[in-house]
Amino acid sequence: ISRLTNDIMLMRQSVSQVFTGLIKETLSMLALISVMIYQSWQMSVMAVVILFFAILPVYKLGRRMRKIADATQAQLGDFTGQLDATFQGVRVVKAYGAEAYEIERARLTIRQLFKLYYKASRVQSAAAPIVNAAGTSAIAVVIWYGGYGAVHGTTTAGDLLSFIAAMIMAYRPFKTVAGLTTQLSEGMAAAKRFFTVLDQPAEIQNREGAVPLVVSQGEISFEKVSFHYAGGHGGISDVSFHVRRNSTVALVGASGAGKTTIMNLLLRFYEAQAGAIRIDGQDVRDVTIHSLRSAFAFVSQDIVLFDDTVRANIAYGSAGASEAEIIAAAQKANAHEFISQLPHGYDTMIGPSGVKLSGGQRQRLSIARAILKNAPILLLDEATSALDTASERAVQAALEALMQGRTTLVIAHRLSTIQHADCILVLDGGRIADAGTHAELLATSTLYQKLHQLTDAGDIRAAEPVA
What is the pTM of this model? Predict the structure, then answer.
């Protein structure tokens, strides 16, 4: 975030102030140097040679300034992230009485920023004395040489005075350019950080010759798919299954079994390292990313809402949706009633991440968004996890009606929500351990029986992977 705010501000200042100042002052300096050369090229050479010795220290100051500016912006970015995390978790901070700890963390970071800003100020201030010393020396040498020439008749007093006047006038833009150089280094450091992000290629891109996905049946196939995260931890290994048209397949298993990884690979948030994933026989790597993701409606257990109106959040991804369609989606998600009670109804701003709503209300908005998209394939990552019992029943009924005529892949932490699934895949350690209907698995799968018992006691997310 800091690279898109503070760095851009420094780049803007460099362009609007530094570059315009450099152009103006450089042209003035060149014009005055031309006058000096016209008056006496010998004295001009002396002055330029002496001033040249000031260029190297100023250049070194610029390089040092760039390093300091880079460190400052990096520290400022860390501070921005630290503050964001603290504000997001303010309830946890208060609940654990950690206010003093967070204040001390902020104080230490601010001290580091102060030290960096102080160093930057010293570097910027160092350019002026160097240029002053060089300018004074140049004037002294010119007066000595010109005075000697005036005494011996090689030059006139008028020529000497006019040269000194032009030199003094050229000194001001030279000093200004030297000062702007250090500011320019700060802007260049910001530009480097900004373009490092801007030029970073997307990890997942369309293949050459990729074509739009055509969904006719909505069938999904995983064929010996493997994927592991950095370091070889987590992921899935040699996973194969087939989701028939208009059927519902549920994924169950302990945390880390690979359920979410399967959905991430299906949406191409990550690329499969082995095997193939197909939709209606089309390899997802051979179709455009936009058309692939347009075929899915996704409801995650991690609720994502934006600092916008209720209407905008429901219609997110469904540009051109009418008011009636938005309200109908909210009604199916059991959200219309509480939305109508908000201060401005569907025009109510819900704050960053929907902080003005309860957890259940936020989840129902995300479900309404998926309902409105009306995609041929549904991905549900425990979509009713944040709802109370009454709301869960209403939304579950709406989801079951929505799943009719659509291919659905469900991640379940409570087995009661997927008992009627056409097929349940039991994952363990990134592999499919068992598969079948609810009744079949209860009769034949020891792992599923254990998960079912844990469901009766609470939530299978607390389960440990079975060896």
Answer: 0.66
